[in-house]
Amino acid sequence: MVSKDKSAKYGSKEGYDADVMIDSKAMLSKEDFVATGVLTYALGDIIEVELPEYDVFALGDKCKMTVYTKSGLFVMDTTVVAKERGSLIVLNPPENRRKFTEKREFPRVDVKNEGLLFGLQDKNKKLKHQFETPMRFSIKNLSINGLGFTINENVMLEKVIQKNSQLEVELILGFLVPCTMEIVRQEKTNDGYYYGASFISIPEEKTNALRGFILKNQIETYFVQKRENETKKALEKKSAANQ
C-alpha cells in the first residue's frame, strides 16, 4: 500500500521518475483472464509489458494494469495498441503520466515528412512576410509540442527567419495540419539551416490525428530498435561462444 507521503507526491512537479516502473512486475487483466509479466519500457503515451500470454490479448482490448514498483503500487485502465512476439504495447493514461517526471515532457520521433511555409512575422508582429509561392521544408523530428526541420541553402531565409520568428505552415503527414509555430533554435548545417520550433496553435480537430501519428511512429521506432538490439546481443553471444 502506498504511504500518504508518497501519495502526496503524485501529480506534483517533484513526482516519481518514470524509470521507477522499469523492470517492475506488471499484471494485466481483462474479463476473466489475468497475465503477469515485466514492464520493460515507459515513455510518453506508451508502456511495454513483456509476458508469455501476449497472444491472448488483441489490439484494442481494454485492460486493467497493476504495476508493483519499489515506490508503490500503480493501478490504471489502459488499452492494447500494439503487440509483438512476447510483448504488448499499452497506452500510458494521462492520470498515470501525471504521477511521474520524465526527461522529455513529450517524446520526439524521427520522421521523413515535409511541410509548406506560407509566411512569417517577428514576435511583436511588426514585420510580416508572405511568400508568393509556399516554401517546402523537410521535417526531421516531431513531438506534440514542436518539431525540428531543415530548409536547403537559402541566404534570404537566413536573414528573415530568426529566433522567436512566428511561422505560418502546413505539415504534410499523410493528412494536412495547418498551424503556427515559433522558432526556438537555429543553426547552420552543411546542407542549409536546421530550425527547432514549438507549436503556438493547431486546429483542435487536428490534435488527435497528430498525436496518433506520433504514437504510431514512436511504436514502430521502438520495435525496430528493440529488434536491432536483440540481433546485436545474439551475435555477440555467438561470437563469445566461438572464442
TrEMBL record:
<dbReference type="InterPro" id="IPR009875">
    <property type="entry name" value="PilZ_domain"/>
</dbReference>
<dbReference type="GO" id="GO:0035438">
    <property type="term" value="F:cyclic-di-GMP binding"/>
</dbReference>
<protein>
    <submittedName>
        <fullName>PilZ domain-containing protein</fullName>
    </submittedName>
</protein>
<dbReference type="Pfam" id="PF07238">
    <property type="entry name" value="PilZ"/>
</dbReference>
<feature type="domain" description="PilZ">
    <location>
        <begin position="103"/>
        <end position="214"/>
    </location>
</feature>
